[in-house]
Design goal:
Blueprint: H1 2-21, H2 23-31, E1 34-39, E2 47-48, E3 54-55, H3 59-70, E4 76-81, H4 86-91, E5 97-98, H5 106-110, E6 114-116, E7 121-123, E8 125-130, E9 144-149, H6 153-164, E10 169-174, H7 177-185, E11 191-195, H8 196-204, E12 212-214, E13 222-224, E14 227-229, H9 233-251, H10 259-265, H11 269-274, H12 291-299, H13 302-309
Helix pairs in contact: 3-9, 3-12, 9-12
Amino acid sequence: MNHSVFLGTAIAASLVAGMGMADTLDDVKARGELNCGVNTGLVGFSAPDANGNWTGFDVAICKAVAAAVLGDATKVKFVPTTGQTRFTALSSGEVDLLARNSTWSFSRDTDLRLDFVGVNYYDGQGFMVRKDLGVTSAKELEGATICIQTGTTTELNLADYFKSNNMDYQPVSIDSNAEGEQQYMAGACDAYTTDASGLAATRAAFADPENHIILPEIISKEPLGPAVRHGDNNWGDVVRWTLYALIAAEEYGVTSKNIEELTKSSQNPEVQRLLGVTDNLGAMIGLDAEWAKRAILAGGNYGEIFAANIGEQTPIGLARGLNAQWTQGGLMYAMPFR
C-alpha cells in the first residue's frame, strides 16, 4: 500500500517537474526580457557605468543567453544582488538566472536547491593588505582585523584557515564589495579577503593600486558559475550550453570577427554543428538553429570576453591561469556539440 502511495507521489512529482521544466524558457520568451541577477558592483565582473549600462565578465553571460533565447543581447534586466540576497532572488523567481561570481558548493547545490550549470571562472580566496603593513604572507595575519562579506563561502573558509593555522583574527562584517572597499580604505581592517579575482578588481579601482598587495596564499577552491533553480532542467540546458558555446568557440578559433566567414567555410563538423550549419541542435532545447552563433556574436567567445573585461590588458590584469583552455594547460573544457 505504502509502495503505491509512494509511487503515485513520485509520478505526480515527476509530472509537476515535467510541466515546470520549460517554464522559465517560456516565461523569458513571453516576457521578451531576461531577468539576470548580478553583483551590486564589481568592476570587470558586473558593474553599471555612469549611464546605467552594465558591463563585465558575468554580465556577458546574461547578454549571451538573451541573444540565444531572444535574438537580442540588450534584452536583459540586470538585478543587483548582495551576497545575502542573491540566492533568494533566484529561488523566489525574481531572477531567471544568477550570474554573480558565486561559488558552486555542496550545500548550495543541495540544501539551497540551486543548479550550477558550469564554471565560468576557477578562482580561490586570497587576502589584500596595504604594502606599508609589512606583511608578505597570510601566515603573518595573527590577530589582524579582516573585512569579510557575510553570507559567503569566504566567511567559512576564513574561519577554517585561521583555525587550522592556530591563529586568531577579528572579523569586520560587510554586506557588499563597495562597503568592504570603504572599510578597508578607511583603515577599519588590516586585510580584505574575498576571491582573488574580486581582490584584483577591487584594487584596480583604487587611486593608488601600487600601494596594496595581494598575498600569495590561495586558501580555497572557488569555482564560480551561473546558477538556475533546481528542477528547471530545460532552462538549465539552455544556460549551460550557451556557456559551453562560448568556451567551445574559443577552442575552435571561432571569434566574433570571423564567425560569418566560418559559417560559410568551416569544414570542422563540430563548428558546423555549433553554428547551426548542420544538425540543428537548437531544436533540442527549444531554440532555433543559430542560437549559439548569436550568443558568440553578443560579446565574443570565452577568450574574447575574458580579455575585454578582466584580462592582462585591462586594469584588473588577470592572467588566464586555470581559466585557460584545456588544450593550453587550463581547466576550460566544453562538452561536445554533437
